[in-house]
Amino acid sequence: MTRFRSIWASLSMIICLAAASADAQDNSAAQANNPLAQTTSVNFQNFYVGDLTGLDTDANQFYFRAAVPFQAFGGDWIMRATLPVNTLPTGPSLSHDTGIGDFNVFAAYLFDTGNPAISFGIGPQLTAPTATNSDLGSEKWSAGLANVMFNATSPKVQWGYLLTWQASFAGPDSAPDVNAGAFQPFLFYQLGQGWYLRSTAIWTYNFENDAYMIPLGFGAGKVTKTDRAVINTFIEPQYTLDSRGTGMPEWSVFAGINFQF
Questions:
Q1: Domains, the chain, ranges and CATH?
Q2: Please, which pLDDT band fits residue 4 given cuts at 50, 70 and 90?
Q3: In the 8-state DSSP scheme, what is residue 31?
Q4: Closest Cα to residue 174, out of 213, 134, 204?
Q5: β-strand pairing of 179-192 with 195-199
Protein backbone atom coordinates (compact mmCIF):
# COMPACT_ATOMS: atom_id res chain seq x y z
CA MET A 1 0.00 0.00 0.00
CA THR A 2 2.85 2.38 0.86
CA ARG A 3 4.52 1.68 -2.48
CA PHE A 4 1.21 2.28 -4.30
CA ARG A 5 0.79 5.65 -2.56
CA SER A 6 4.35 6.60 -3.49
CA ILE A 7 3.78 5.69 -7.13
CA TRP A 8 0.47 7.56 -7.17
CA ALA A 9 2.09 10.65 -5.63
CA SER A 10 4.84 10.57 -8.26
CA LEU A 11 2.32 10.24 -11.09
CA SER A 12 0.26 13.11 -9.69
CA MET A 13 3.34 15.30 -9.53
CA ILE A 14 4.24 14.45 -13.12
CA ILE A 15 0.69 15.24 -14.28
CA CYS A 16 0.72 18.58 -12.42
CA LEU A 17 4.11 19.51 -13.89
CA ALA A 18 2.93 18.58 -17.37
CA ALA A 19 -0.25 20.64 -16.93
CA ALA A 20 1.76 23.61 -15.67
CA SER A 21 4.12 23.28 -18.63
CA ALA A 22 1.16 23.14 -21.05
CA ASP A 23 -0.41 26.23 -19.42
CA ALA A 24 2.90 28.10 -19.71
CA GLN A 25 3.21 27.08 -23.36
CA ASP A 26 -0.36 28.20 -24.08
CA ASN A 27 0.24 31.54 -22.34
CA SER A 28 3.47 32.02 -24.29
CA ALA A 29 1.64 31.26 -27.51
CA ALA A 30 -1.12 33.72 -26.64
CA GLN A 31 1.34 36.53 -25.80
CA ALA A 32 3.85 35.82 -28.59
CA ASN A 33 1.88 38.01 -31.02
CA ASN A 34 1.10 40.80 -28.54
CA PRO A 35 2.76 43.99 -29.86
CA LEU A 36 2.45 45.50 -26.37
CA ALA A 37 4.00 42.58 -24.48
CA GLN A 38 6.36 43.87 -21.78
CA THR A 39 9.33 42.01 -23.22
CA THR A 40 12.30 42.91 -25.37
CA SER A 41 11.84 41.46 -28.84
CA VAL A 42 13.81 41.21 -32.06
CA ASN A 43 11.97 40.40 -35.30
CA PHE A 44 13.14 39.47 -38.79
CA GLN A 45 10.22 39.72 -41.21
CA ASN A 46 9.78 39.68 -44.97
CA PHE A 47 6.94 41.01 -47.14
CA TYR A 48 7.05 39.70 -50.71
CA VAL A 49 4.64 41.24 -53.23
CA GLY A 50 3.99 38.99 -56.21
CA ASP A 51 2.22 41.57 -58.38
CA LEU A 52 1.81 45.36 -58.18
CA THR A 53 -1.27 46.99 -59.69
CA GLY A 54 -0.58 48.78 -62.96
CA LEU A 55 3.07 47.72 -63.07
CA ASP A 56 2.96 43.96 -63.71
CA THR A 57 6.06 43.31 -61.60
CA ASP A 58 7.00 42.24 -58.07
CA ALA A 59 8.64 43.85 -55.03
CA ASN A 60 10.04 42.89 -51.65
CA GLN A 61 10.50 44.48 -48.25
CA PHE A 62 12.62 42.95 -45.48
CA TYR A 63 12.01 44.39 -42.00
CA PHE A 64 14.36 44.40 -39.05
CA ARG A 65 12.24 45.26 -36.01
CA ALA A 66 12.98 45.62 -32.33
CA ALA A 67 10.73 46.44 -29.38
CA VAL A 68 11.87 47.55 -25.93
CA PRO A 69 9.76 48.30 -22.83
CA PHE A 70 10.73 51.31 -20.73
CA GLN A 71 9.36 53.61 -18.04
CA ALA A 72 8.87 57.36 -18.40
CA PHE A 73 6.61 60.07 -16.95
CA GLY A 74 5.51 57.70 -14.20
CA GLY A 75 4.19 54.99 -16.54
CA ASP A 76 5.06 51.99 -18.69
CA TRP A 77 5.84 52.37 -22.39
CA ILE A 78 6.78 50.13 -25.31
CA MET A 79 8.96 51.41 -28.15
CA ARG A 80 9.08 49.67 -31.54
CA ALA A 81 11.58 50.56 -34.26
CA THR A 82 11.56 49.32 -37.86
CA LEU A 83 14.29 49.55 -40.50
CA PRO A 84 13.28 48.16 -43.91
CA VAL A 85 15.44 46.92 -46.76
CA ASN A 86 13.43 47.56 -49.92
CA THR A 87 13.63 45.95 -53.35
CA LEU A 88 11.38 48.04 -55.57
CA PRO A 89 10.84 48.59 -59.31
CA THR A 90 12.27 51.95 -60.34
CA GLY A 91 12.56 54.06 -63.48
CA PRO A 92 10.81 53.66 -66.83
CA SER A 93 12.22 50.16 -67.28
CA LEU A 94 10.97 49.09 -63.82
CA SER A 95 14.34 47.56 -63.05
CA HIS A 96 14.64 46.62 -59.37
CA ASP A 97 16.74 48.63 -56.94
CA THR A 98 17.64 47.41 -53.44
CA GLY A 99 18.60 49.51 -50.45
CA ILE A 100 17.62 50.78 -47.02
CA GLY A 101 14.20 52.40 -46.70
CA ASP A 102 12.84 54.97 -44.25
CA PHE A 103 13.35 54.33 -40.52
CA ASN A 104 10.20 54.33 -38.38
CA VAL A 105 9.78 54.35 -34.61
CA PHE A 106 6.82 54.73 -32.29
CA ALA A 107 6.41 54.73 -28.51
CA ALA A 108 3.10 53.73 -26.93
CA TYR A 109 2.09 54.63 -23.38
CA LEU A 110 0.42 51.59 -21.78
CA PHE A 111 -2.83 52.37 -19.98
CA ASP A 112 -4.03 50.34 -17.00
CA THR A 113 -7.14 48.64 -18.39
CA GLY A 114 -7.95 46.87 -15.13
CA ASN A 115 -7.43 43.54 -16.87
CA PRO A 116 -3.86 42.24 -17.40
CA ALA A 117 -5.06 40.27 -20.43
CA ILE A 118 -6.12 43.46 -22.25
CA SER A 119 -3.37 45.81 -23.43
CA PHE A 120 -4.00 49.33 -24.74
CA GLY A 121 -1.39 51.88 -25.75
CA ILE A 122 -1.12 55.14 -27.64
CA GLY A 123 1.76 57.49 -28.41
CA PRO A 124 3.81 59.38 -31.01
CA GLN A 125 5.54 58.00 -34.06
CA LEU A 126 8.31 59.37 -36.26
CA THR A 127 9.61 58.40 -39.71
CA ALA A 128 13.07 59.55 -40.81
CA PRO A 129 14.15 59.74 -44.49
CA THR A 130 16.99 57.23 -44.23
CA ALA A 131 16.44 55.63 -47.67
CA THR A 132 19.62 55.13 -49.68
CA ASN A 133 17.97 56.76 -52.70
CA SER A 134 14.79 58.66 -53.51
CA ASP A 135 13.08 55.66 -55.13
CA LEU A 136 13.21 53.63 -51.90
CA GLY A 137 11.71 56.17 -49.49
CA SER A 138 9.61 59.30 -49.15
CA GLU A 139 12.49 61.80 -48.70
CA LYS A 140 10.31 63.40 -46.01
CA TRP A 141 10.37 63.63 -42.23
CA SER A 142 6.96 62.54 -40.96
CA ALA A 143 5.31 62.41 -37.53
CA GLY A 144 2.01 61.18 -36.19
CA LEU A 145 0.34 58.80 -33.76
CA ALA A 146 0.17 55.06 -33.12
CA ASN A 147 -2.59 53.28 -31.20
CA VAL A 148 -2.47 49.57 -30.30
CA MET A 149 -4.93 47.25 -28.58
CA PHE A 150 -4.53 43.53 -27.83
CA ASN A 151 -7.13 41.30 -26.17
CA ALA A 152 -5.87 37.97 -24.79
CA THR A 153 -8.70 37.24 -22.36
CA SER A 154 -9.37 34.00 -24.22
CA PRO A 155 -6.62 31.37 -24.32
CA LYS A 156 -8.05 30.23 -27.67
CA VAL A 157 -8.64 33.46 -29.60
CA GLN A 158 -6.68 36.71 -29.40
CA TRP A 159 -7.48 39.84 -31.37
CA GLY A 160 -6.70 43.53 -31.62
CA TYR A 161 -5.42 46.22 -33.94
CA LEU A 162 -2.63 48.67 -34.75
CA LEU A 163 -3.80 52.07 -36.00
CA THR A 164 -1.28 54.63 -37.26
CA TRP A 165 -1.33 58.02 -38.95
CA GLN A 166 1.51 60.28 -40.01
CA ALA A 167 2.07 63.44 -42.05
CA SER A 168 5.26 65.02 -43.39
CA PHE A 169 6.62 68.19 -41.79
CA ALA A 170 10.06 68.60 -43.41
CA GLY A 171 11.97 67.59 -46.51
CA PRO A 172 12.54 68.72 -50.09
CA ASP A 173 9.65 70.49 -51.80
CA SER A 174 10.21 68.33 -54.87
CA ALA A 175 9.14 65.19 -52.95
CA PRO A 176 5.42 64.46 -52.56
CA ASP A 177 3.91 65.27 -49.17
CA VAL A 178 3.05 62.40 -46.85
CA ASN A 179 -0.37 62.11 -45.22
CA ALA A 180 -1.22 58.45 -44.70
CA GLY A 181 -3.05 56.16 -42.34
CA ALA A 182 -2.85 52.42 -41.75
CA PHE A 183 -5.13 50.01 -39.91
CA GLN A 184 -3.93 46.52 -39.07
CA PRO A 185 -6.61 44.27 -37.54
CA PHE A 186 -5.14 41.05 -36.22
CA LEU A 187 -6.72 37.77 -35.22
CA PHE A 188 -5.02 34.65 -33.81
CA TYR A 189 -6.57 31.25 -33.19
CA GLN A 190 -4.61 28.83 -31.00
CA LEU A 191 -4.57 25.20 -32.19
CA GLY A 192 -2.51 23.84 -29.29
CA GLN A 193 1.12 22.81 -28.78
CA GLY A 194 2.24 26.26 -29.95
CA TRP A 195 0.53 26.09 -33.35
CA TYR A 196 -1.89 28.85 -34.35
CA LEU A 197 -3.74 30.42 -37.28
CA ARG A 198 -3.35 34.13 -38.03
CA SER A 199 -4.67 37.07 -40.06
CA THR A 200 -2.77 40.39 -39.84
CA ALA A 201 -2.96 42.17 -43.22
CA ILE A 202 -2.54 45.97 -43.16
CA TRP A 203 -5.14 48.28 -44.70
CA THR A 204 -3.72 51.60 -45.92
CA TYR A 205 -5.12 54.93 -47.10
CA ASN A 206 -3.22 57.82 -48.68
CA PHE A 207 -5.01 61.10 -47.91
CA GLU A 208 -2.93 62.92 -50.51
CA ASN A 209 -4.21 61.03 -53.57
CA ASP A 210 -7.02 58.82 -52.20
CA ALA A 211 -5.09 55.63 -53.00
CA TYR A 212 -5.91 52.70 -50.73
CA MET A 213 -5.78 48.93 -50.35
CA ILE A 214 -7.79 46.46 -48.28
CA PRO A 215 -6.03 43.06 -48.10
CA LEU A 216 -7.02 39.88 -46.28
CA GLY A 217 -4.47 37.44 -44.87
CA PHE A 218 -4.68 33.84 -43.71
CA GLY A 219 -1.64 32.00 -42.41
CA ALA A 220 -0.19 29.84 -39.67
CA GLY A 221 2.59 30.00 -37.12
CA LYS A 222 4.40 28.05 -34.42
CA VAL A 223 5.49 29.34 -31.02
CA THR A 224 8.35 27.55 -29.27
CA LYS A 225 9.43 28.39 -25.72
CA THR A 226 13.11 27.89 -24.89
CA ASP A 227 15.20 28.75 -21.85
CA ARG A 228 16.42 31.96 -23.50
CA ALA A 229 13.52 33.16 -25.63
CA VAL A 230 10.04 32.60 -27.01
CA ILE A 231 10.47 31.94 -30.75
CA ASN A 232 7.58 32.67 -33.09
CA THR A 233 7.81 31.62 -36.75
CA PHE A 234 5.00 32.26 -39.23
CA ILE A 235 3.93 32.56 -42.85
CA GLU A 236 0.82 34.40 -44.06
CA PRO A 237 -0.30 34.69 -47.70
CA GLN A 238 -2.37 37.82 -48.33
CA TYR A 239 -4.75 38.83 -51.11
CA THR A 240 -5.99 42.37 -51.78
CA LEU A 241 -9.79 42.47 -51.89
CA ASP A 242 -10.00 46.08 -53.11
CA SER A 243 -7.54 48.83 -54.00
CA ARG A 244 -7.15 52.12 -55.83
CA GLY A 245 -3.93 53.46 -57.29
CA THR A 246 -0.82 52.22 -59.06
CA GLY A 247 1.75 50.11 -57.26
CA MET A 248 -0.61 48.44 -54.78
CA PRO A 249 0.00 44.76 -53.91
CA GLU A 250 -2.43 42.40 -55.62
CA TRP A 251 -1.13 39.42 -53.65
CA SER A 252 1.70 38.98 -51.21
CA VAL A 253 3.32 36.67 -48.65
CA PHE A 254 4.27 37.87 -45.18
CA ALA A 255 6.67 35.66 -43.20
CA GLY A 256 9.12 35.98 -40.37
CA ILE A 257 10.70 34.84 -37.15
CA ASN A 258 10.27 36.77 -33.90
CA PHE A 259 12.21 36.43 -30.65
CA GLN A 260 10.84 37.56 -27.27
CA PHE A 261 13.37 37.72 -24.42
A1: 2-260 (2.40.160.40)
A2: very low
A3: H
A4: 134
A5: antiparallel
